[in-house]
Amino acid sequence: MKEDALKEKILGFFRRNTGSYISGEDISNALGVSRAYVWKYISKLREDGYVIDAVPHLGYNLRSAPDKLFGYELKSGLKTRTMGKMAIFHHESIGSTNDAAYELAEAGEPEGTVVVAEAQSSGKGRIGRKWLSPKGAGIYMSIILRPDVETDEIPTVTLVAAKSIADAINDLNKMDAGIKWPNDILIKGKKVCGILTEVKAQPDRVDFLVLGFGVNVNTPAGKLPEEGTSLKNVSGSSVDRAQLVRDILEKFEVDYLRFKKEGFNALRDECKRLSLVLEKTVRVKEHHRVMKGKAVDIDEKGALMIRDEEGIVRRVFSGDVVMCRR
Amino acid sequence: MKEDALKEKILGFFRRNTGSYISGEDISNALGVSRAYVWKYISKLREDGYVIDAVPHLGYNLRSAPDKLFGYELKSGLKTRTMGKMAIFHHESIGSTNDAAYELAEAGEPEGTVVVAEAQSSGKGRIGRKWLSPKGAGIYMSIILRPDVETDEIPTVTLVAAKSIADAINDLNKMDAGIKWPNDILIKGKKVCGILTEVKAQPDRVDFLVLGFGVNVNTPAGKLPEEGTSLKNVSGSSVDRAQLVRDILEKFEVDYLRFKKEGFNALRDECKRLSLVLEKTVRVKEHHRVMKGKAVDIDEKGALMIRDEEGIVRRVFSGDVVMCRR
User: Fold this and answer.
1) In CA terms, which of A71, A127, A208, B21 is 20 to 30 Å from B191?
2) Inter-chain contact A205–B287, Cβ cutoff 8 Å?
3) What's the CATH code of the domain at B9?
4) What are φ and ψ of residue A305, in 5° steps?
5) Domain count, chain A
6) Is ipTM over 0.95?
7) pTM, whole model, 2 decimals?
C-alpha cells in the first residue's frame, strides 16, 4: 500500500502540472523522497502502462494513462473523505466484487472500502442473476457501508446510490439516464447499470451493507445483453472509466452523508424525479405475486406505491417492474 | 463423520434395548460390521465418556452417557428429517456458534446444519450484547436455515423458534415459560433463553438465516446474569441437555415446516398465547425512539402493535421491551 501511496502522489503531481515538464528534483522536493525513489516509481508507473516522457534538461511529462482502475489511479485527485479513501482492492479478474467485499466487511474493513475489478467471471445481479462483466469494458465495483440503519431501510440505500450514479452519468455528454425502480439505471429504455445491495443483519440492525454496481461503460454492442446498452453505445465515444468512478464516489459520498444525517426523505424528491416508472402503468413481479397498476409514489422506505384497477394503493418492496404500453 | 455415524448406530442399538445386555455378535449383525469394529467403537465411546459394561457371556450394557452434546449423541434417536440430520459441528469451546454457522452457511452448508458448543467465549446477544455461556451448563446452538422468505419476514422466524423452544421447555416438569417479544423466553420474569437471528440478504430475498439460541439449562445461580435464571434453578433438578436439544429440534422442525407451508399466520395464535407482553403496558426502546403503550397484538409480520395513550396504534419491528407496573 505504501507503494500505491507514492504512485498516487507522483500521479497527482503530474496532474496538477498538466502540459508542462517537471524535473525529477521538483517531484523529489514536493514529495520529500530521494530522486532515486522518484526514478524508481516512475519506472513502476511505466510498467503499469503509464506513458511518461523523459526529456534531458526538461524533465518528465505524463503523456497518457492506461485504461485501468488501479486503486492509486482512482485515489489520485479523488475529492472524498471516506468513499474510496480507505483501501481499494483492485483485481484484474475476480468472481464477484460483492463476494470479495462481503468477506472483507466480515473481516472488519471500514466503511468506504472499495473492491473493483477489470472483469468478473460471475458478476451477480439480483435474485441469482448474472451481470455480464467483460474485461476492461465496464465498472464492476463494490463499496462497504456501515450505516446505522434498520433492515427495512435497506432499499433506500440502493435508491440513493442509484441517484448518485445516474447523476454522475448525466453529467457526461448526451446522456439521459433514469432509475428503473428498484435497482437499475436505464438510458432510452436499456439497462446501463445494475445495483446489487447485500447485507449482513440482525432483525433490528444492519451489521454492514455491500453496495455493488456494474456500469456498462465502453462495452461494445456485441458484448451487451439484449436488454442492455453502454455509455459508449449511446454517445458514440469512449468514456474515461477511472474519472467516472471518481465522479460516482464523490456524488455518492455527498448523497450518502445527507442520507445518514437527514434520512431518505431529504433525497426522495430527487430520486422520484429520476424515476422512470412513476406515473406509468406497470406490472410488478414480486417474490410471490404479480401486481398491475399505476406507479404513483416511492414512499419514505423506498417502497413503490401502486394503485391497482380498483383504486387500492399497495406497497411493493422489491420486484421486477415491466412498463406496460397503454 | 463416518466414525460418528457408527457411534450413533451403536448408541441407538443400545437405547432400543435399554436394560438388557447385548452381545457383540448382535450388534455386529445388526449394523453389518465386524465384531472387531464393534469392539473398537465401544472403546471409542468409552473414551468419549460413555460407561459401557462388558460382562462375559452376557454382552454389553450402556450404563450412562456423558453430559455432552456430541453430534452423534444428538442424532441418536432424533426424530427429524432435516433439523440436526445434516452435519452437526460440535465444539468443546467456541467464540460464537452463530459466527461459525454463518461461515458454514456462506460456504454452502444446507438447511438443518447445526453448530453446538459446550461453551462460548463470546456468545452473542442482540445488538452487540453478550450471552454468558459457561461450560457444560447450557445449550449454545445455531441452526442454518434457507427459507424462501423476504427480509421483512425474518422476525417471524425468530418468533416461530421461540414458540418451539418454549413448547419444549414447557414439556419439562414444573415449567411455565413464555415469550418476551421479540426474542427472549422467560420463566417467572427471568430470562432462560435468548434467540439471535442473523441473516445474509438482498433487499428482496434472504440468502440464508442463522438461528442461534442460548438456553440456561443447568447453569448454577452463581453463573447467571442478574436478570437470568436456568431450568435447574427453577425446577431444582438437572435437565438432560441432549434430550432437550432433540425435543427442540423436533418441535422446531414441525413448526418450521408449517411456517414454510402455511405462513406465519398459521402459528400466530400460538405465539400470541405464549406471549408475555400482550395486554400489558410496555415501554419499548427501539433503535431510535422510545414508545409507551399497551401491547395489543402481534401482526402477520411478527411486529408488536402498541396502542399509545392517545389511542394511536403503532407497529414496532424490534426493540427492548420493559413491562411496566401499573
Assistant:
1) A208
2) yes
3) 1.10.10.10
4) -100, 125
5) 3
6) no
7) 0.83
